[in-house]
Amino acid sequence: MVTLIDSPTSAAVQPRLTIQTADIAAHTTAIRCLDWDRDRFDIEFELRHGTTYNSFLVRGEKTALIDTSHRKFEAVYLQQLQDLVDLRSLDYLIVNHTEPDHSGLIPDLLELAPQVTVVGSKVAIQFLEKLVHRPFESQIVKSGHSLDLGQGHGLQFISAPNLHWPDTILTYDSGTQVLYTCDVFGMHYCDDSLFDETPERLEPDFQYYYNCLMGPNARSVLMALKRIAPLQVGLVATGHGPLLQHHISHWLGQYDAWSQNQVKAETFVALFYVDGYGVSDRLVQTIADGISKTGVAIELVDLSVADTHEVRTLAQCAAGLVVGMPPQSSTSTTLDPLLGTILAAVHPKQMIGLFESGGGQDEPIYPLRNRFQELGLQEAFEPILLKTEPTAATDQLCREAGTDLGQYLTHKQSQQANTDLDPELNQVIGRLSTGLYILTAQKGDVRSAMLASWVIQGSFEPLGIVIAVAKDRAIESLLHPGDTFVLNVLEEDNYQSLMRHFLLRFPPGADRFAGVNTYPAQNGSPILLETLAYLECEVTSRLDGNDHWLVYSTIQTGRVAKLNALTATHHRKLGNHY
Ligand code: FEO
Fold first, then answer.
1. N or C: fewer beta carbons within 10 Å in the chain?
2. Which atom of ligand 1 is nearest to 239's Cα?
């Protein structure tokens, strides 16, 4: 049965928050908190269809709650839970993962059910001891451990560190064949559908979620898949989005294929950082996002929980390294040996990028930078030092720094790939000619621009254009569905200086518009004063063109400055470059 309860907030002024409950297996109830309008996650992660926070109640002879919900659902969630079960009789709280969207209500729950035993990984229990300011019963579990709830509900635990936090476990009920996975196999997709009946509708969000959260730890994903392979899974009860029942092998197969692909990539960057110092997560995720755009694989390693062997292997094999330092005052004695392991493993063919978060007076990044330089590593970007709270501009800086590092590493490969093109075909493709344009986009305080030549009209009704944007372009992150931009049309015989300006290689975070005359379009993006015409556009969809995004956009408005002037054209000789 499904019930919907409006939250006490006013839908007119507050995001819509609703709750849904449903029986999903014997003695098993799903409690799904539907956050219809949430549009961002972890700052970096843009949501298109809201999200849900799913929690589960299993009632054998003993009763267990599996994960809780986000704090914003405090009133409705706790009320719903109390309608389903007498909290004084709750025996266990299984914590698969401790990020606040799942653990936010644990302190409230422990107030109402102080007798409960909290079950989780060692890292999770340690985290909760800091979060909950009262003593509580706990049980640390890992792969191989189990818990019998009676009435056939035998819970088995599977360690899944780094998916996507080091605390993660999966919980399998052998009685109902339900695998509770919290973030793993989830997606940020909010609607009333409880299950995954229509995979084609869900696939883009499933993949986007994997790319953002799981892809950075592809090796750990493969390890977890291996651990769950022997289980008979009839339902994957995820912590976000619909539960997976109808296409389980497809979803698991996708995780396997994407992770295999990631691991096989010859070139990868290892990003070493220390979790738990506020902003370092955000910085490293954003740098990683920038690297990923270039097709270079990434491996994120939290030094606070990594083991020496893993650190040594990754530091030796990576084509590039990013090392994030916490403030000097926070460096622990356990961190120093791991930095020593990295320094002992690296070699001069590698590239390095450094960042420091925290804001202390000391800057431990510089002695470390000297050591890497002495060892012959080439620096991909200037060290990033952050002494204040990160902003959208910091995100742009980090993303572009990551992209620079990735581009350095892929440069040789792409040159090699280009020369592999059949010479005659290369000549033929070179005969495709286009116009010349400057694409400009602004979102909040962040703005960017690129010289574009692969632009065509795509439709009459609605009026639409298609632009091919290389996946490693900084501006790509401003061209998702719903984003707006301006296409500035360059004028024949009057485009050289603008073209030269926007062809320059800008350092990460630099203002592309310094020294260029602009004024804002109705949609907020810069219009270049010197151009022949402009179109204001809104991105409708993106087609994956392997190394480019084909961005289809509808035209909102536009203007021609000189009626009799012609558009600058671009003739090439060869098809393997722009
Ligand atoms: Fe859904 Fe990592 O929290």
1. N
2. 1
